[in-house]
Request: fold
Amino acid sequence: MRASLKHQSGSMSQQHRTHADDALELVEPTGDFKLRLDRRPRMEEPLPVKLVTVDDATLLTGAGLERDLDAFYVDLLGFVRTGSPHDLSYRADNFNLHFRVEEPPVRRDTLRALGVEVQSLATIEQRLIDEQIEYTWQKGLQPGHQSIAVLDPAGNWLELTESRAI
Reply:
């Protein structure tokens, strides 16, 4: 069986080579052809991060953490800062993340983590290591499901998961 497979694959590659060596001839255009500027609006590339929520999310933060939050959400995770300079909001691919600024100490009603889907947990893990940010790997209930639990600079828990094509 193996010998016949080798023979078949050998003849296929020879056949494939003959098609690849054939020259392609271009036909002269008939009529006037003029290059035009494409004026259609350009679509933005999707952001590498999504919120795992059904609507925009709001988290709490203490005053004075804007630069730290920008470094974490924009530089580390890939969000885009939106709104006015006084507005603390970030855009993911699907929803917005808003921060309500309060005077410290900030009191939270819940410690539930906000779900954030990233393209690669390995890449995010390396960035966390480079920035010396503590994190914890978590195993999910389903086989192969893993996530990273991390605190943002404001003390909010995030659960980072990897996006998977279905």
Remarks:
- Helices lie at 2-21, 66-77, 121-130.
